[in-house]
Design brief:
The chain is of the alpha+beta class. The chain is 51% helix and 24% strand. The mean pLDDT is 85.
Length: 84
């Protein structure tokens, strides 16, 4: 049977565990990693030579289909360089 002291200790331990920042950081990183595995983000693949972007490809990930690639135009590459 649960006594008042055991209930108070259980609540205290629960508060201590849930308020620990390390657990929140670990949980956040784990959830973010799993979400990126399940639903990958779109990416830009850049090839650089002497600090300038020579080619860039936009990779659009899809959940149930294979990824699609699109080569970026020189204007879009200039926008990428100005955004640095």
């Amino acid at each position: 049977m649960w006594s008042t002291l055991l209930i108070a200790q259980a609540i205290g331990w629960l508060v201590l565990i849930l308020s620990s920042p390390l657990i929140f950081i670990f949980t956040k990183k784990t959830v973010r990693h799993l979400s990126y595995v399940i639903l990958p983000r779109d990416t830009i693949l850049q090839y650089q030579s002497d600090g300038n972007i020579t080619e860039a490809y936009y990779i659009k990930h899809k959940l149930f289909k294979s990824a699609s690639f699109r080569k970026l135009t020189p204007e879009e590459i200039m926008q990428l360089e100005s955004a640095k």
